[in-house]
Amino acid sequence: MKILLTGGAGYIGSHTAVELASAGYEVVIADNFSNSSPVVIDRLETITGKRFPLYEINVADKAALEKVFEENKIDAVIHFAGFKSVGESVKVPLSYYRNNIDTTLSLMEVMDKFGCKNLIFSSSATVYGKRASLPYREDMETGPCTNPYGWTKLFIEQIITDHAKADPDFSAVLLRYFNPVGAHESGLIGEDPKDIPNNLVPYIARVAVGTLPYLSVFGNDYPTKDGTGIRDYIHVTDLAKGHTAAVNFAKNHKGTEIINLGTGNGTSVLEMVKAYSAASGKDIPYKIAPRREGDIAECYADATKAMELLGWKTDLSVDDMCRDSWNWQSKNPNGYK
Length: 337
Ligand code: UD1
What we know:
Elements: E1 2-6, H1 11-22, E2 26-30, H2 39-48, E3 54-55, H3 62-71, E4 76-79, H4 86-91, H5 93-113, E5 118-124, H6 148-166, E6 171-177, E7 179-181, H7 200-209, E8 215-218, E9 230-231, E10 233-235, H8 236-250, E11 255-261, E12 267-268, H9 269-280, E13 286-289, H10 304-310, H11 318-331
Parallel strand pairs: 1-2, 1-4, 2-3, 4-5, 5-6, 6-11, 7-10, 8-13
Antiparallel strand pairs: 9-12
Bound molecules: uridine-diphosphate-N-acetylglucosamine (UD1).
Uridine-diphosphate-N-acetylglucosamine (UD1) is lined by residues 86, 124, 126, 150, 179, 198-200, 203, 215-218, 229, 231, 269, 292, 294-295.
């Protein structure tokens, strides 16, 4: 089976390419490297022994995308391509709506033209907005989202759901990721934010490696065990395996399924700092700062549906995430540059 990965050179896409290849799937990558590096394709070859066919295209460009489908019999698509910075989406919302929604519409129109009926979409736990009860379950209400990035994920979920309703042969799996962190155990691929990181673990990694002086802990007055925010961090390798399980599932399924990919466990900011410091052997200086606008106190998944439908659960711990993040960060202090 041949799987097209839009955004396949990105952080989650590249790790998924490795897991799909090791499960025996053929991988084709479409990426315009707008937020990733061509070096990833070489690194993937080192890890898997395979040179994945690469199309350097914008997925919104239908003519370019049609060529991919003409030259390959694509059985399923995993749609990772999209802008993903929360802060940036607040500053340039039109660009987020245009890019994320356009790429999805073009992709689905081309899939329709070529009779490709399996789509797996990178969604996010951000679509839950601020819910009163925990853990987050797939049948809970969604929104309102706190930023345009989150809205693009929710709107795309709706677009895909409507399409799958109209085409009874269509199979869609909407994967709601919790907080992906860590890196492949080889240290050859990992997360490489282009500017100063916004997310916790990449920021801690830069403090540990010495390129940033200290971490600002955004609030220590939340109603949590130590006052800092709690999230469900998931190792990117576990997350990637969740995609392989979703591909296995989608091929024998019709309609839309929404599935959380998380561990079901919450970790606080201070617990993460401690775990990262132990894994790296480095001091992680931090200062308590005001809460970040739009943040919630606590967020973690109910991961039972993924187990029931996909037969998938996470294996790796927070210590594994910190070890592998540090392995990647210390071997690649400037990312792919
Ligand atoms: C964020 C996004 C979410 C997106 C996800 C992608 C926001 C509000 N949410 O989730 O929409 O899907 O990234 O990975 O941006 N923290 C610090 N100091 C820092 C950075 C973070 O204390 O320098 C804290 C935060 O307050 C939070 C926790 O660390 O409690 C995790 O933050 P982060 O890694 O940014 O993830 P989310 O906010 O959960």
